[in-house]
Amino acid sequence: MSETAASAPATTGEFAVELPVFTGPFRLLAELILEQKVDVCDIAVATVTDRYLAHAKDAEGWNLEEATWFLAVCAVLLELKVSRLTPKHAELDEDDLLGGSPDLAYARSLELAAFRKVALEIARRLEDEAGYFARDVGPGPEFSHLYPDPMTHLRPEQLATMAAALLRPPPTLDLSHVTPVRYTVAEAMTTLEERITGIGRGATFRDLVADCDERIHVVVRFLAILELYREGKVELAQAETFGDIDVAWTA
Fold first, then answer.
1. 44 pLDDT more than 70
2. In what order do the strands lie in the sheet with 234-238?
């Protein structure tokens, strides 16, 4: 039916479509599509939707039941159309891989014959070697004189050289570019707890870092304040930008 246009009369007030492949009630068209008597790919859903919106404007009011049915049918049609148009993954068979080329088929047969030959050879060797087992013990002491003595050509000076190399202390690694950790966040948290409880209410961050001699100590205590806040042990308040930070112990 997709190649030949079909038509059916529509009753008064019924939504009808006029498409290249079908002319008549949309309900009938939907039934034909669902029964696979009309190809959904031949139906322009956007055109049908535009005509339905125009039809709804011309009508006296919206028919909720009809609008709901129309949306449901359009959703089904869109799903069918997307499913038809979306490329599907399919396993390639031998003909697809070879592309119908006799040369490739011949080359493939040679490779297959080679693989079969190797597989047979491996199976034969596995069967022949099945009765052999690796010896897991060393030779007896009666054969010890047959081993070459590794110390025969070793001279004392060579032994001294190897000992000096093995006993030489490793070179000292230069860590002058690494800043040593002299004050940890954990230590700063302990110090802050003592100072906040000592000062009591009204403690500010400026008071808590008043005894810091180096900037790194101030930074570490600020990180410790944030860690205490994350643990819910202190409350922070700053009335204005760049103003004093009030710290209150709540734990």
1. yes
2. 203-204, 245-249, 234-238
